[in-house]
Amino acid sequence: MFQTLKSITMKRIMHLISVLILFSLTCFSQEKKITLRSGVGYYADAMGRCDGPVFWLEGGYKFNTGFYLNGRLSMSSIEWMMSGGFYEGYKTIALRQMADITFSRPIKLKGQHFLEPGLGFKLKREYNLYPDLSIQSTEEETIFYTRYSRVFYEIGFTVCLDYYYEFKSNFYMGMRADTNVIWAIGLEGLTFSPLFGFRF
Amino acid sequence: MKTIASKISLLLYALTGFANVVNAENVSDTLKYSISINYYIDLSDTYDGGNLLNAEAKITKSWFGASISFGHFQSYSIFEYRVHVDELEKTLIIPFDEVSIMKTGSISLIINPIKTESFETELVIGFVSSFAKSSQFHDVEYSYSLQTNSFNYLYKNYELIKRSHLGYQLGLSVTYYPLKKAGLQINTRIQDLNNGGTFFFVGGGLCFRL
Questions:
Q1: Domain boundaries A31-199, CATH class
Q2: At what angle do helices B2-22 and A2-27 cross, to 10 degrees?
Q3: In chain B, what residues touch A103 (CB-CB under 8 Å)?
Q4: pTM (2 d.p.)
């Protein structure tokens, strides 16, 4: 029993070491190839004219063409007022969880100032809290039709533009402007956010 | 837990291996010409699915380029016209076979974020123009006998609808070249066109370097 456990543990340690060696060969070369950036900012729904905060986290890897392949996770909650139905005039919220794959390329403006445009694809999951109630009465019975929330997925693309200043320590900070365009619907969201990142 | 750990380490292996492979070679700055033939399926409900056979010619240099494509789209679907007959307490279903064909062309800009001798990834942004003809349900005339439980007569009327679509597309292509001059390609194209023309094509094909 102990021997088996020991063998499994050894196997895992060897596994981990080999992954770390491969990872370090790839990532910790002379050139800084990996970047991590994050921000908390303002999200506006261009169609519904409502807004809320957005939080995003992005990781990228630099390829030999100078492009970064980035994976981003972001979450935004927006507040909006119901314009019809039983709860007309009440405020409610929608939660947007988004996953993006983008390609971006830094352009050196002057000194350590950079502009980085990006373009990619988006998958959005929306949790839409939209309660409603309608009542249908007959002589025999009264029927209540209720609705509370719905969850739906949408695809689209994202266009973003970063401006940042990179310090000698490879830490950088700046601003991000980002859009999300939903397929078959159009421009839906705009993000303005400070940006903090690091290259290693 | 063990499965998750092994999956994560496998993913890390794959990612690091992939990163080493795609960064192994330098990007060429010379002009490169290629053609590709792709077969796509449409995941949208614009024409209730369908297939697209597309040919594309492209020219690239370093990390950018341009392409022109031409394709033939065809779809077949069945529209079910339903009539509820209260006397029989059942629904009559009258099927209509609908066919759509479409000629489509595009001019696009290409960005090559990942490019080596054996592996390429392309981001495609461009204009699309399409011309579609559909044979679709127009109306139906019928007489149904409750006694015999059958149609006395049934006339299905179709109409030919011609639509032109104009808009933009965004796509991603991933090509692997096992041979120096020939490669395998997988593609996706999101198209947002006017006159109700939204398409989501996913497919693959062959790519040849000239």
A1: mainly beta
A2: 30
A3: 111, 113, 123
A4: 0.78
